[in-house]
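Section 3.1: Structural characterization of target chains.
Under the original work plan, the team committed to producing a structural model for every single-chain target entering the pipeline before any wet-lab resources were allocated. The record below documents one such target. The sequence was received from the expression subgroup and is listed exactly as submitted; it comprises 466 residues.
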Amino acid sequence: MAFARGALLVLGVVVLAAAAAAAAEGGGSVCFDRVFSFGDSLTDTGNFLLSVPEDFPDPARYLPYGQTFFGRPSGRYSDGRNLLDFFAEAFGMPYVPPYLGGGDFRHGANFAVGGATALSWSFFRERGVEPTWTPHSLDEQLQWFKKLLPSIAPSEPGLAINDEKTCDWWLCATVACSQRLSDAVDLRKQNSPDISDTAKYTLNLPRTIRQTVKSTKLLCSCAERSDVMSKSLFFAGEIGGNDYNHLIVRGKSLDELHELVPHVVGAISSAITNLINLGAKKLVVPGNFPIGCVPLYLAIFPSQKEDYYDEQTGCINWLNEFAEHHNKMIQEELEKLRNLYPDVTIIYADYYGATLDIFRAPLKFGFTVPRNACCGSDAPHNCSLSIMCGNPGSSVCPDPSKYISWDGLHFTEASYKVVIQGVLGGYATPPLSEICKGGEYKVSQLHQCTDNPTNTVTYDALSSFI
């Protein structure tokens, strides 16, 4: 198995053939036209900073964040690129812009927000936990996407059906728009011979639908929406880790964490189902990372107990076992969804396995400092809650590429690159090649890491950090 794991990472770079030129010509990947991402700080490309006042003292607003690749802070919680950036590069796509930044979303949008949870604020408040992190949970990110969708899939003038259920019934009499447009049109031909004339076509619709057509100003074409959704790739995560992280740093028990898992998994499943009902055909759902290897947790949960740490990795066993439990539940839920929606490709991205490989043999990947933060304090593991990266008193290592962890909670871009190589190479179920069914599977080789200088808020110091 050790050989297989190593081979998978090599496969992620070598076997995946280059297609950057084709993507540049067509404006998208050969497998999909755009990427939409939901999640937290592991994939945030600027949304958290855009969601708070300009004077909010978030470390990612300043150097050394962004120093390695962008040469400036970019809203990412790393020294450079993150998971989403490397995935976009691998498929020859542009970097995915943050939704709150506005602009051109023809090739997708990123809704991930640093500190975001799968569950809403109300869920935690009902359980006696007062949120001090971003309110932009997974459900709100999904609402952002629904607001954006009509602008990406505009319709013909005069065809303005904004209600999803009406739109879906009118077009194909199913819960979600699908490939059955031609069948639906055939059913209407007997009433409207000249269906190319939208005005005449709408006259033959039931009165309630004609009223919707007349009264709605937002444009929503079911056919174009179906096309946009089916030719897009959706990242549902990584999300859910913060639901646990926010409780772990508050000293909640392991039993309380386990009670949370079904709710977190349920929220992720609900978001996936929502996207499928909107027409999504290709989804990637990552699992949680081996959080027992996170320097912050190694620093705040030290122990002399026997078997507390894994002998090979030095990571905290109980935290990694909890992450494994979450991932097992997610995978079981995804299998249920695959059975319910056999025409949809739902891929589990095994971030846990790809990352644990690094901790098992860090030198093989070029990491000489596996369990310390590159940027932080002089505390154990270079990490403490009182002096985080970017805060007064913190310092940064001379070579982030030798470190797995950037700031004690997030990874260096060198680590993110290896993780994505692992997922592309085989740490995914089914393989990522499944998203290219019916077409060529060509993926550009990952770029080399090089320097390229190119309201009252009540969040706490860790609001976006985890």
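Strands lie at 34-38, 108-110, 232-236, 282-286, 345-349, 369-373, 375-376, 395-396, 403-405, 428-429.
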